[in-house]
Design a protein that fits this description.
The structure is a single chain. This protein is mostly beta strands. It folds into 3 domains: 43 residues, no CATH class; 100 residues, Alpha-Beta Horseshoe (Leucine-rich repeat, LRR (right-handed beta-alpha superhelix)); 37 residues, no CATH class. It is 6% helix and 31% strand. The protein has a 7-stranded mixed beta sheet with strand order 5-6-7-8-10-12-14, with no helix packed on it. The protein has a 3-stranded parallel beta sheet with strand order 9-11-13, with no helix packed on it.
């Protein structure tokens, strides 16, 4: 069930919708809408070639939600706490979401990396699924609820934590990151 960003055709609320459905009901105004129309209401893409191989992308019916340059999400400046990052994004830039009150992020399928401090200080962020193939910069999730060994996420790189072997337990370690090999007690 792939979720994409859409805009309610009645109230203009930003939605994360299952694009395999034909219709749904807006959680903001309780109005039924046709999913395809809501997606088209949101998705307006303009690619502008400015020469020298540089590309500037203006994405979305709510153009001001994302600043994207050549596939890199430079800054999220929208107001929704649940963010669906456009499929055109392959890199989330440094501090792109720094300190924002977001609660959920849906990453695009083609995401390659999350740069350092991208989600730092997003103190309400509790819902994000990061594929193993995505490279995560240092402190990308520092000072967020998912930055803790309780949730099985490495504080340094965001990688998955696994319980350690008996030998490592002798040194009182309980977890090891599968990406950067950092140990946690």
């Amino acid at each position: 069930m792939p979720f994409v960003q859409a805009k309610c055709t009645n109230c203009g609320g930003v939605l994360a919708v299952d694009d395999s459905l034909d219709a749904a009901v807006c959680p903001f105004c309780n109005t039924p809408y046709i999913v395809e129309k809501a997606i088209n209401n949101y998705n307006i893409t303009n690619n502008i070639n400015v020469g020298d191989g540089a590309t500037v992308n203006i994405y979305g019916g709510i153009e001001k939600d994302f600043e994207i340059k050549a596939g890199t999400l430079v800054k999220y400046i929208g107001e929704s706490q649940e963010v669906v990052i456009p499929d055109i994004v392959t890199v989330i830039g440094e501090k792109a979401f720094y300190g924002l009150n977001i609660t959920k992020v849906v990453l695009p399928k083609g995401l390659v990396s999350i740069k350092k401090e991208a989600f730092m200080n997003c103190k309400m962020l509790t819902d994000i699924s990061i594929p193993e193939t995505v490279k995560i910069g240092s402190y990308a999730f520092c000072n967020t609820p998912i930055w803790s060994t309780k949730n099985g996420v490495c504080k340094k790189c965001g990688g998955q934590l696994k319980k350690v072997s008996i030998v490592d337990r002798l040194y009182k370690y309980k977890y090891r990151c599968t990406k950067c090999n950092t140990y946690y007690k």
